[in-house]
Amino acid sequence: MKFKSIISSVILVAASVLFISVAPAQAGECSAEDPCHTYAMVNDAGVVTNIIVCQPSVCGSGTFAGSRVVPQVAANPETHQNQGGYLANPGSTPVTESNGRFTITNDQPIVSQTIVKEEVSNTVLQSEIGSGTQKSFTFNDTVGKPNGTPTMTNEAIKSSTSATLSATELTKFDTPTVVAKETITFNKRETEEFVQLQLQVDSLQRILRNWTYFKLSLIGWFL
């Protein structure tokens, strides 16, 4: 059967974290000698409780207003003005700091989806990696960036992170109906070989036919 693939991927990452502008706490005019960086106020547990605009002349000691402060996002290299910073939404997993490295936890699953268009039906392929994936960065990763956005480092996914694979075959009518659906959930990270073997044991042929797609979507999740 001839077919073609149309890929439409949706990635949900860091939805619980805001990149926001911050109130100033600097002493004087922002300059190359004393730029207005974004500093994170960090408690004893390593949690970022607030972010402020401050200058090395004021916050360079590592303390401000009785709190430990750590430079988070460098000032704009041309204007020397602050460029916002990272702070978690209330009720979500907080941004944390350790030895100058900030870690952002994603409270939303990462969902990847593609539609395989065939002659008589369409098949929707979807993989979902559970919440809890993490990215991290340091102040140095933001230096010289005109928008202050760092290149994030993907942290190792926790072994308890789940993954769900599904393949849903739909009719090609104006109002599609489900012809068949295959789905499988792994409650923790597994090896690529284990996942493929389990698909074979469960005879999930639609998922197996599209194994290359699922394998690519789970890179980083496999043990």
Structural classification: mainly beta
Give the CA-based shape.
elongated
Termini gap: 34 Å
* Physical arrangement of strands within the biggest beta sheet: 1-10-11-14-15
Question: Could you report the average pLDDT, rounded to the nearest whole number?
Answer: 87
Major β-sheet profile: 5 strands, antiparallel
Radius of gyration: 23 Å
Helix content: 10-25%
List how many beta strands DSSP finds: 15
Strand percentage, roughly? 35-45%
Low-pLDDT runs of 5+ residues are 1-16
The domain count comes to: 2
Question: What's a concise summary of this model?
Answer:
By secondary structure, the protein is mainly beta. The protein folds into 2 domains: 3-13 and 108-133 and 156-217, no CATH class; 17-105, no CATH class. The protein contains 4 helices and 15 strands.
Your description of this structure?
This protein has 223 residues and is mainly beta. The chain is built from 4 helices and 15 strands. The chain has helices spanning 56-59, 192-201, 205-209, 211-217, and strands at 3-7, 17-20, 37-42, 48-54, 63-64, 67-73, 85-88, 96-98, 101-105, 110-118, 121-129, 134-138, 153-154, 163-171, 178-186. The protein has a 5-stranded antiparallel beta sheet with strand order 1-10-11-14-15. It is elongated.
